Amino acid sequence: MGFYDDRVLPHLINVTCGMSALTPLRRRTCVGLSGEVVELGFGSGLNVGCYPEAVTRIAAIEPSDNGWRLAADRVASSTVPIDRAGLDGQRLPFDDDSFDAALTTFTMCTIPDLPAALSEVARVVKAGGTLHFLEHGSAPDEAVRRWQRRLEPIQRRVAGGCHLTRDIPGSLTDAGFTVTTVDRFYQPGTPKSFAAMNLGVATVG
């Protein structure tokens, strides 16, 4: 990683993704999680405090050392055990069928090889387990999608490879998941090109 991606970007993500308006969405995303959960893109731990009591462990996947350091106080205060269990969502260091569920929030946009990461999630989560997701992506309106295509090259440079145009439900379906629920909406107070949200649950197998 360069200086910007390693030292600056984790702080920017902690601020922008840590807005209080997103907390209710994080809580909605975590509803129904239970047992052992692998969380891709743990970042600075912004989902800590949103996990249901039924969650017994979080295996955090986070490539950024600075992101993990920013999470230290949240991890220490968590009532759910959390350990940094891996660095790369595209190559998860776990046996097959190791987890009851998976969680991603604002992560699928930046993973370089998203199909590989989703294949890994499907491998390590037990059949019938769930992937809970809160992700921005391709907008439902063509006028907004045109702006997303224009802005994406800049967004990828300044936001750690973040894509604006990924079809999140479509990517999950292509990876063999069954999308059981998805709420698609624009987050109020954010320009629409960056605010097309997908909040839902997909089932493995």
TrEMBL record:
Provide the GO MF annotations for this entry. Answer: demethylmenaquinone methyltransferase activity; S-adenosylmethionine-dependent methyltransferase activity
InterPro entries reported in the protein's UniProt record: Methyltransf_11, SAM-dependent_MTases_sf, Thiol_S-MT
> EC no.?
2.1.1.163
Say which domain of life the source belongs to: Bacteria
Domain Methyltransferase type: residue ranges: 39-132
Q: Which Pfam families match?
A: Methyltransf_11
Q: What is this protein called?
A: Demethylmenaquinone methyltransferase
What is the native source organism of this protein? Gordonia insulae
UniProt lists the gene as: menG_3
